[in-house]
Amino acid sequence: MSNTISPIIEVKELIEIHQLETLVIVDASNETSYKAKHLDGALFVNLNTQLSNIKEDVSIGGRHPLTTIKQFSQTLKSLGINEKSHVVIYDDKNGANSAARFWWMLRAIGHDKVQVLNGGIQEAERKGFLINSELVEAKKTASYNFANYKLPQADISEVENYSQDKNYIVVDVREEERYLGIKEPLDLVAGHIPGAINIPFSTNLDPNGLFKTSKELNKKYQVVFENIKSDHIIVHCGSGVTACHTLLAIAYAGLDIPKLYVGSWSEWSRNNKNIATINTNF
Description:
Strand content: 5-15%
Number of strands: 11
Shape: globular
Number of domains: 2
Oligomer: single chain
Largest sheet: 5 strands, parallel
Number of helices: 11
Strand order of the largest sheet: 1-6-5-2-4
Radius of gyration: 18 Å
CATH topology of the largest domain: Oxidized Rhodanese, domain 1
Distance between the termini: 35 Å
CATH architecture of the largest domain: 3-Layer(aba) Sandwich
CATH superfamily of the largest domain: Rhodanese-like domain
């Protein structure tokens, strides 16, 4: 890994750098929660309007396609984020709401100084970090210029070609009941991509909702991946958001970041592709 800092930051560490001039704290939960209370100095980022380029046709790119480079550059400018910023992101779902997605997007453009707050706002409040509902204005900054998203991605064709190839691993991070096709609360069809294995993102966390240690996560994913290289590993979820939680955990484990299938189940299930369920033999 080339990360210069850990992708996870503890509340104690954030308290220590709270007055850092280059620090930008971002709340990636939801607007209602943010307006009610947020970390002191935190700005808000919206998954649907700032971290996604949502289209009417979900079959093309899924429910949360990535923004264009121009759109993301505008979002960063609106948050006062530039090349020198130390960005700390949190949400209210242990990083699985949108914090990990924003982390992935920043890492994908080559921004190294970005971390996700372990335990989110709940842990920060428990540890005594200042919480309020005060209006926060972003610092004025020049545009953040970058050419593309550099972290590896897989499209629907690649997933279809390699999902049942023994030299590849496709990881579905959704909860087991969705993977098995027992229930599907968000998309039109229940089930999973044939050949995909299920490692729910929740298994990245300990019973207290904090990320397991880097050593524990390293051991966990080394066992799963064995000798498969990162460019032969594809991670997905429902719409390319929660999958980033597992990519974050893998990075925290000191391993190379695998490919993200942004379209995920929301795209796959709308394109007449083969679908597996608990009753499917394959």
